[in-house]
Amino acid sequence: MRQSFSRRIDSLSAIFAFIDRGIASLGVDAETRFDLHFAAEELFTNIVKYRTESIRDVEIELDCRSDLVRITLIDVGVDPYDVTTGPDVRLDRPVEERAPGGLGLFLMRKVIDDLDYHYEDRVSRIVLTKRLR
User: Fold this and answer.
1) Tell me, what CATH number does 94's domain have?
2) What is the pTM of this model?
3) DSSP 3-state assignment of 133?
């Protein structure tokens, strides 16, 4: 399944509905559904907030199988930004000693199984995979 979404935060409810349609037949539990929504929200929100060089819609591709769900966010006309290389947040440090930012991506990496990034010809592809147990 593939669908385009306007580059606006208020597209999130449509994105969640799209994910829910894709996983409907898989018997996904509430925790896994939450994890998929959270991961998609974090990545899409970062695209909207920080990838301002493009005005094009963001495409989301959903690959649902009996053993995994893979969500790919495709952003065209952007500079590279590899979300897989960001530093881990230092939770062992007091809040006032931490650098701002990165907590959402850090938490997202904790609830998904794989995160990949591909970039070519000003097209960014962020692929997250959640294995179904």
Assistant:
1) 3.30.565.10
2) 0.90
3) coil
